[in-house]
Inverse folding.
């Protein structure tokens, strides 16, 4: 018991000193390791995959981070995270486009496997049929708030609109 208190005290001190570096320390004493999801799958996401972190969207060659509710796409020489699709995808139909569910990846950078995903799940790829979580909807929204990654954003253009199911070539 005394050893446990010492370990916990040491971890708390370590955690406090590393807070400025934004390091997360998980301490599980007597509890199972549980994968906790902050975000919930979008209504356009396929049913049956509640414990995954990412979808790959082959038609528009980008990722969707379920936990952060963000799209991850390549632009201006780097990977960008945004709550909205970029301008060139504004007419892409998320409900009818195929989603590759990445069941075997749980890190922060799914794009580390982009070349593999791009070749294996080419534009127009269709795997087994998918049932969406919610009913089809066409969104007509205007937002001014954006999330930034590496100082880039989507220039005020938002996705999820339209229903023609076509993406834009990169």
């Amino acid at each position: 018991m005394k050893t446990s208190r010492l370990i916990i005290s040491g971890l708390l001190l370590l955690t406090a000193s590393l807070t400025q570096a934004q390091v997360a320390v998980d301490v599980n004493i007597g509890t199972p390791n549980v994968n906790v999801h902050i975000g919930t799958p979008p209504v356009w996401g396929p049913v049956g995959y509640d414990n995954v972190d990412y979808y790959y969207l082959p038609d528009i060659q980008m990722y969707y981070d379920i936990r952060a509710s963000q799209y991850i796409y390549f632009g201006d020489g780097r990977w960008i995270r945004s709550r909205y699709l970029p301008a060139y995808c504004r007419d892409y139909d998320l409900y009818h486009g195929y989603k590759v569910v990445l069941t075997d990846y749980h890190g922060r950078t799914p794009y580390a496997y982009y070349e593999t995903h791009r070749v294996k799940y080419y534009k127009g790829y269709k795997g087994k049929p998918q049932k969406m979580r919610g009913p089809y909807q066409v969104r007509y929204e205007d937002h001014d708030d954006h999330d930034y990654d590496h100082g880039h954003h989507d220039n005020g253009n938002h996705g999820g609109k339209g229903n023609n199911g076509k993406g834009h070539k990169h």
Remarks:
- Strands lie at 54-57, 62-65, 70-75, 78-82, 100-102.
- Residues 11-37, 139-170 have pLDDT under 50 and may be disordered.
- The longest strand covers residues 70-75.
- Residues 38-170 form one domain.
